[in-house]
Each structure stands twice: as structure tokens, then as C-alpha cells.
Amino acid sequence: MAKAKKETKAVQDFSKYVRWFWIVFLGGIISLFLIFFLTSIFGDLPDHTVLENPKTHLATEIISSDGQTLGKFYLNDNRTPVNYSEFPQHLVDALIATEDVRFHEHSGIDARGTLRAIATLGGGGGASTVSQQLAKQLFTGVASRSTFGRISQKIKEWIIATRLERQYTKEEIIAQYFNIYDFGNNADGIRSAARIYFGKEPKDLSIKESAMLVGMFKNSSLYNPRPERNPVGVKNRRNVVLAQMYKYNYITEAVKDSLQKTELDLNYSPESHREGIATYFRGYLDGFMKDWIKNNPKPDGTKWNLYNDGLKIYTTIDSRMQTHAENAVQQHMPRLQAEFFNQNTPKRNPTAPFLDLEKEEIDALLKRGMKQSERWRHMKYDLKKSNEEIIKSFDKPVKMTVFEWKDGKASEVDTLMKPIDSMRYYKSFLRTGMMSMNPQTGHVKAWVGGINYRHFQYDMVKQGKRQVGSTFKPFVYTAAIDQLHYSPCDEFPDVPFCIEANKFGNPEEWCPKNSNGDSDYGGTRTLKNALANSVNTVTAQLIDKVGPQTVVDLAKKLGIESEMLPVPSIALGTPDISVYEMVGAYSTFANQGVYTKPVMVTSIEDKNGTILYQFKPETRDVLSEETTYVAVKLMEGVTQIGSGARLRHSWARNRQDYKEVITGYPYELTNPIAGKTGTTQNQSDGWFMGMVPNLVTGVWVGAEDRAAHFKSITYGQGAAMALPIWGIYMKNCYEDEELDISKEDFKKPENLSINVDCSKHESTSDADEDQDENTPEDLDFG
Fold first, then answer.
1. What's the Cα-to-Cα distance from 483 to each of 490, 504, 542, 560, rounded to whole Å?
2. N or C, where is the chain less crowded by C-beta within 10 Å?
């Protein structure tokens, strides 16, 4: 009897457990249903339209003519999406093996993984699928710290994940996840990450590189591969990913073992507005786009956002030619600067870097510089300091990072310096401007506005203007050819020449001198020889015959918009003109008399590929084919027998000045080249304009202030300061045969009535080995 009672009690106890089990189970199901229901009703869940077009900030991409990304415009999100088809398979394999091995089996929620996570309280691994992680990245954001809040977020992620699975294919979900993730260091999305950490596009990533980037999904802040952050942790995490890839048969054990032994091998290339390729061009483009946005609203009347709307700007810049141009500047300018510093030590020049200035003039120059500085603006208008307080602050040493050329490369150094001394220090640096353009299409292929955009942001291609010196003379010669039908072989006396006062608005008699003063006269010269050797007296005779206004009118037709006074001295290059204008003007000569306005942007598209802007060529006939061909033949003489002959010869290898500053010599170019060197008074500016049939390139070199310059013309002439950049650039362009830069003759008109063969007029002295050295051009404004 007692035994029966015990059995009855045991059954009752078991029934109680079963009842409680069902209460808990059903209660859990009901609670879960209620949470889902309440979350869907009261929670902030995106509807189907938001799921179709999730809001992400996309950077504007700047694309070169050869399809490379030059840079981007962005504020916080440096993101440019790429399609799934552009991913290497091992990148996708690494993600699935590490983050969601059953990705292709579930519909947004991995039931097995979720149950395992609940049973082990997370100790057996996480349960989030790629779809859930995408939902978190797109819509829920940072995890809540409260338990209820995190549970609510998690349920939202489950709901959104299942919706995403219905809305998108598996491949689209993977692509979105790679594109949305922040990999740190301005690497938003897989494309930026691949470019910043490895300097390549996603499709070119190797297995170990893909594994490293996938490893960063765990925590990109913790697993930051930069040397000063956590490269060891990143390597360990990468090796975990490789192990997962082996575990799930994506790679062999041998591949896993070999790759785990390798280093990260980063090619860290930060992307910012002040770093990378074509920085000065991107600075120009920023202004161009802001003007375009101002005048071209969206269809709904709102303005485009340059930094968030994912525009694509297709430019004419060729990334290969841009690289050649920047490399040429980086090769030449450190050597030229080293010689400038050598000639301007305190012992050799107590007023360095300035020449021919008294102390009072230097003080006034620096004071003007103070008032134009950012430091003055900040203290004056933000901090409301008095002028006296601001001036005193310039004499107090402060910590700063300054630019320097170190071992022939652009670098920075931390130092303690007075702001006034830093101003003087920066004024001692020689700057440069360079632009290269196809004369037939007007497409600008390379644009270098200075030596280092981070420290010298003033663009010397289009923004800055300087006296052009003898590079202006071809306009005078061309006007004479056009109006008076002169031949390059026509001879003029090389004698002192004056234009009387008031003849062309000049208040005084104008009597320019040749480069070597009174000793440089006698005999006659052909126009070809006179231009080649920059003979001022012959140029003066020509402008006297055609008149300054004629020359000004021609220059304007050639695209020069800067102010030019119609006075005789313009013949020697007194106007301030930009490199941009000069290259456009010279391109008319290479394009048989047709001026084509320089083009930098060919089209603009929105993120969906809709064309918003397409350029229209602007051309006009300026000169006849015959006139321009004769002018070109004149300018060919500059590189044959004149101040540009060093582009061809090699006999000066052992000359000291060549070893010091003629970087890249000998160039030994043998193809037809037309051009002109230019040197302004006191060697303040050095120019070289050079042309081949399908490429025109202009280079300027000088300091910020005209008073900072080389003392001697040997180092300060255009053939020493600017021509080497042109020579290095063109030599590299010719070696890159895909660029198809012409080595052919300039096109000759069918019915040429002007004689251009001056061989019977050329004396042996024209071909002297040191002709371009004995008659260096100098500008005397008289």
C-alpha cells in the first residue's frame, strides 16, 4: 500500500515538471511572439522602400581618362561601392568561412547557431549571420548597453535580416556588407580598404590580403594593421581566418601553413584631400564642382552634395602621365633646392633667401606675409587679438611640423620655431607649376600645381600667375609672320634698337639690351636664330613693325585672359600669365592654328550612372595653317641651336652646373620638338614651353617672392630651372609606349609659300657645342 502511494506521488511530481515545462515553453513562445509583434508595431523598422534604397553616404569619385581613381571627395564616409562580380572568390570564401558558414542555407537567421549561442550563453560562438550584421550596419547601429535594449535591437536585426533575404540575392547581400563596413583609417567599404591597405582594387586582392580584411570584421578598431597600432593582433586574426578557410575546404593545408608564416605586407596608402595623386588638380576640381552644383540642381530643386551623393567625375587626366609629371617634379626640385640653399647660406647671403633688398624692405615683405597668414586671421577674427598682440606672437617659438626635402624626397620634420622664422623658411622654397595637354582635343593630361600640396596649397597652374619672360616672344614673331609674311630665314641686324617715347603709349624711350649687354651685338641674325637665342633687339624691331596692340589682340585670341598692356615691353614677357593660359595658347601652334579651350572634365554621373553633365568642345580658328607651321619651325630652332638644345646634346655631362641642377641629363631626344625657354629679370622666374605634334607641356619654376632667386643666370635661367622637368617627363612618356606620344614631324601645309629652310643662312656658330650656354637668355625690361 505504501509503495503504491509513493508511485502515485512520483507520477504527480513528474506531471508537475511536464506542466511547468509547457508553461515555460509556451510562455517563451508567446513572449517571443509578443516581442516580435511589439517590435514590429512600435519599433523603428524600415519599410520596403527603405530596404530597397538603404541610405548610405557615398563619396564622389574622381576618375582618370584611363579608368583609375585619382581621389575622392568625402566628409566622413570614403565609400565607393563595387559589385559582387568585382570580388575575387577567395574574398567571399574567407567571409563565409569566418562569419557565416551556413550563409547559403538559411534565410537570414541561422537556427542552429542561435540555439547553440543560447545553450552556451555565447560561449560556443556568435549566432549573427551576414544578413543580420548587414541589418545592424544599415539600420540598428551601435549595440545598446542595456539588456532589454540589446534584445530589442537583436530582434529588429532578425526581422530586417529576413526581409533583406527576401529583397536581395545572396550575392547582393554579400556585396552590400563588404561595401558598408568601416575598415578604419578612412577605409569605408572594401574598395577603399583594398586601396588604402594594399594599393590595389578588390579584384586584385590575394588570399592573405582578403583574409586580413575579413579578419577586421570582428573589430576594425582593435584589429588596426598600421605599424603603430596592432599589426601583431591583425596577423593573428588573419591566421584565424586562414584556418577557417582550411577547415571548410576553401584552401589546402599547405596553402594555409605557407600563408600563415607571411607578414601582412601592407602598402599603406592613405586617401585624403591632401595626399595621393593629382592633389592640385583635385583642389581645382573642388572649385569647379562647387560652381557646377550651384548652377545645376537636382530634378527636385535640391542641391547635389559633393561629399555624400556618390557622384562620378570623369576627367581628362591620364594617371600614367600624371605620375610621370609628378615624378619629374620630385626628381628635379630637391636638387635645384639644394643648390639654392647652398648659394644662400647666411655667410654667402646675409639677407637670404632674398637678394637686392634692404632690411626695411624685407621687414615690410614679411609683415605683409603675416597679415595674409592663417595665424593672423585666426588670432584677429576668432580670438579677437589686437595687432600688437598678434605681431608679438610671431616672435615666440612654438612647436610645428614643417616641410623639407630629405634624401631627395618630400618629408616633414617636427621642430621648435618662431612663426616669423617659419615664414622666411617657407619663402626660401622654389615652387613649380606644370600642365600637359593634347592640342587637338584640349584634354589636359597632367596637372602639377606645386611641390607638396599639404604645405604649399596655392596652385601654380591656374591660380598663380607670373611674368612669362621670353616664352611670350613667339606671339610677337607670329604676329609679324601673319601680318608681314616674314620667313624664319629673313635677316635682321643685331644692333641696339630703341622705340621712341610715346609711340605706343610708352612714356619713355624703350631700348632693350641683349643678355650679354653691349658686348652681344654685331652682324645680322635670321629670325630663327634670333628666337632660338632670345635676342631682345630683334624682338624689339618686330614689335615696332606690328605694334603692341596687334600682339595683345593675337594673345587674347590664343586664350590668354590675363591683363596685358599694349606697350612695347610686353615683347619681352612682362605680363603675368598662368601656366594654364600659356599651354592653351601654345597648343594652337600644334593644332594648325585652331585654339581649343583646355578641358579637364568630360562628364559627371550620379551614383546610378545617369549622365548629369557632358562637356562641349570650345574651338575657334585663330591663325592660318601656314602661319602656325612657320611659327613652329621657328620654335624648333630653340631646341636645335638655342637655349633648349640641351634636350638633345650630351657633351656637357662633366660640367659642374649640369651635375648639380640639370636633373636627368642627358635627355638625348632626337624627334622634332618646338618650344621656348623663358627667364624673367633677375632670374625670378624660369619657364619652358615644349611641343610635339600631339602634346604641349608648360613648366614654370620660381619662389613665392620675386626677390628670392638665383644670383647667376647659369642656375636661374629657364633652361636650368624648368627645362629639366620637361625633359624627364617627356623621356618617361616616350618610354611608356601605350601613351602613343608622337615623335613625328609637325604637319606641313600643302601649299606653303613661306621659305622655312634656313640651312644656307646658318653659320657654323649656330651649331657650336656651347651655344646655348654662351648666350643664356635674360630679360631686360629696359
1. 14, 18, 11, 20
2. N
What CA–CA distances, in Å, run from 436 to 94, 443, 633, 730? Answer: 44, 9, 21, 10
Q: Which long-range contacts (CB under 8 A, 24 or more apart) does 618-621 make?
A: 618/442, 619/442, 619/594, 619/595, 620/557, 620/594, 620/595, 621/593, 621/594, 621/595
Q: Of the ranges 103-107, 124-128, 225-229, which one carries the lowest mean pLDDT score?
A: 124-128
Other residues' Cβ atoms within 10 Å of the Cβ of residue 106: 19
State the DSSP code for 303: P
What is the per-residue pLDDT for 765?
A: 40
What three-state secondary structure class fits 736?
Answer: coil
Our CA angle for 224, 228, 234, nearest 5°, is 30
Distance CA 394, CA 421 (A): 8
Q: How far is CA 64 from CA 195, 268, 314, in A?
A: 16, 21, 6
DSSP string, 528-552: HHHHHTT-HHHHHHHHHHH-HHHHH
The confidence band for 766, taking pLDDT boundaries of 50, 70 and 90, is very low
- Strand, helix or coil for residue 477: helix
For 144-200, write each residue's pLDDT tens digit. Answer: 555 555 566 666 777 777 787 888 899 998 998 999 899 988 888 999 999 999 989
Tell me the helix, strand and coil percentages in the chain, rounded to 5.
Answer: 45, 15, 40
pLDDT at 767 over 50: no
- Per DSSP, the three-state class of 93 is helix
Burial of 358 (0-12, 13-18, 19+ CB in 10 A): exposed
Does an H or E element contain 525, and which?
Answer: strand 524-526
Give the position of cell 603603430.
Answer: 228
Q: Cα–Cα distance between 321 and 277 in angstroms, integer?
A: 11
- Single-letter code of the amino acid located at 747: K
For residue 132, give the C-alpha cell. 543580420
* pLDDT one-digit tens code per residue, 557-604: 999 999 999 999 999 999 999 999 999 999 999 999 999 999 999 999
**pLDDT(770) > 90:** no
Which residue type, as a one-letter code, is found at position 255? V
Residue predicted with more confidence, 516 or 201: 201
pLDDT at 4 over 80: no
| The one-letter amino acid at 133 | Q
Asked if 101 and 248 count as a contact pair (C-beta separation under 8 A), the reply is yes
Q: How confident is the model at residue 38 (pLDDT cuts 50, 70, 90)?
A: very low
CA atoms within 13 A on the CB side of 66: 12
How many whole angstroms separate alpha carbon 417 and alpha carbon 404?
A: 14
Residue 618 DSSP SS3: coil
Decide the pairing of beta strands 60-63 and 312-315. parallel
**Predicted pLDDT at 517:** 60
Residues 6+ apart with CB under 8 A from 142: none
DSSP string, 677-728: EEE-GGG-EEEEEEEETTEEEEEEEEESSTTB--SSHHHHSHHHHTHHHHHH
Q: Is 12's pLDDT higher than 80?
A: no
Closest CA to 354 of 606, 684, 575, 678: 684
| pLDDT per residue as tens digits for the range 114-138 | 565 555 444 555 568 888 888 787 7
Task: Note whether 335 and 743 are within 8 A (CB).
Answer: no
Q: Are 587 and 696 in contact (CB under 8 A)?
A: yes
User: What's the grid cell of residue 429?
Assistant: 622654397
**In this predicted structure, what is the pLDDT of residue 112?**
67
